[in-house]
Specification:
heterodimer, A: 221 residues, alpha/beta, Rossmann fold, B: 184 residues, 6 helices
């Protein structure tokens, strides 16, 4: 059996999307699957990339879409890849989606998940389920093994999902619920995130300008 | 903001324009397929390096200027697997800088505060080939969450269908404007 990870994060190999997707992919590889990986954000920018994307989808039994939620839905590159596959793919297969968002509540990925399910429906692929993580920035793109205790539930949920997928089953609800739990308490998440933004702005010497409004017409006149 | 690929959304675009003009608003139509807009790189520089400004120099900056200075935003798109087309989504992804990086409680949820204070009403117009309950439900949910994320003061969704008469699109769009309180 052959699985393909399609990473939809513009941050590429430094992303939480890739960390989660590659962890799942590794689980399948260790069970004897042939595995491949493709960066969707790069692939959709050239005709050669789109050709590679289609060929990869055609030869895969399982496609894993892993991406960050931007403004409540998959990034533009992921939608572009879906639009291309929809009009061109002839062969069937299975689809798993892994989404993460910056808000701590995983429910914020809900429209993204529905979009992936409808994509599977429209291309005639079997929907194997969607795994949804809130507060994905906590993992900061680190490998899940390196991330330690904070990623314990993430690893456990992905292990359960991989086990089911390897047996040709859908992702169990237990894995979906486990990953859907708050990765850290919401209050703590917001406080830490806000401090981290301040630190980053300070490092770039723009903390005093962080609320600038460069496009406000009334102010610029 | 018209995220269509061909002229399939013309009746909905025309209905939106004429309604807004009738109530005395100045209307700018942004045809996204004619714009040069690159993908968001997810670098967050628009938050912590060049606040409010994307580091990519292309037409998305002009779109941002129109977006933040408009009282009413109409997003038009062919509904794509229940969501926006990639054309429209590419422009939306690049609007991240119109929010601040901070997270704040908003009811039971968390949101980013607005960078710009302008009270904004939003109307989401989605085109489907025919009625499709699942896609319609997803598009409505997405519209609601987008409106909350952009901190719209009021919003509404209109769904129009290619297999129905063009006048129906006009009716649906006008109803949505009324629902969002966009009236004379």
């Amino acid at each position: 059996m052959r699985a393909a990870l399609l990473n939809g994060s513009p941050r590429g190999s430094r992303s939480t999307s890739r960390a989660m997707g590659s962890y799942a992919l590794e689980g399948l590889r260790s069970r004897g699957w042939a595995v491949e990986e493709l960066d969707m954000c790069r692939a959709v920018t050239t005709s050669e990339g789109l050709t590679d994307l289609l060929a990869l989808a055609e030869r895969s039994d399982l496609m894993i879409l892993s991406f960050p939620t931007y403004f409540d839905s998959p990034p533009a590159a992921v939608i572009r890849a879906m639009e291309t596959m929809h009009s061109r793919i002839r062969k069937g297969g299975d689809l798993l989606a892994i989404e993460n968002c910056g808000y701590v509540r995983s429910g914020n990925n809900s429209p993204s998940l529905s979009i992936c399910r409808l994509f599977a429906r429209d291309i005639g692929w079997e929907w194997r389920g969607g795994l949804s993580l809130g507060g994905g920035n906590v993992l900061a793109g680190h490998g899940l093994e390196e991330a330690g205790g904070v990623a314990r539930n993430v690893r456990k949920a992905l292990d359960q999902a991989v086990l089911a997928l390897a047996e040709g089953k859908a992702v169990p609800q237990e894995a979906i619920d486990l990953l859907g739990r708050n990765i850290v308490p919401p209050f703590l998440h917001n406080t830490r995130a806000n401090r981290a933004w301040d630190r980053a702005a300070r490092k770039n010497n723009v903390l005093d300008r962080i609320r600038d409004r460069p496009y406000m017409e009334e102010e610029s006149r | 903001m018209d995220g269509s690929i061909s002229d399939e959304m013309r009746p909905a675009v025309d209905a939106s324009k004429s309604h807004l003009q009738e109530i005395g608003l100045q209307v700018e139509t942004v045809r996204l397929k004619e714009k040069r807009i690159g993908q968001c790189r997810g670098c967050f520089d628009c938050w912590v390096r060049t606040p409010g400004q994307c580091i990519i120099d292309d037409d998305a900056n002009e779109v941002m200027r129109s977006f933040v200075n408009s009282q009413v935003i109409v997003l038009l798109t062919p509904v794509t697997f229940g969501g926006h087309s990639s054309q429209l989504k590419k422009a939306l992804d690049r609007l991240l800088g119109c929010m601040l990086p901070y997270l704040e409680r908003c009811g039971r949820d968390t949101r980013h505060p607005r960078r710009y204070d302008l009270a904004r009403r939003m109307v989401f117009v989605g085109l489907l080939p025919q009625r499709d309950h699942e896609a319609q439900t997803t598009y409505r949910e997405l519209s609601k969450m987008n409106a909350l994320n952009f901190r719209a003061t009021a919003w509404a969704t209109a769904l129009v269908f290619s297999n129905e008469r063009p006048e129906m699109a006009s009716v649906a769009v006008r109803e949505a404007f009324l629902e969002a309180g966009i009236t004379p």
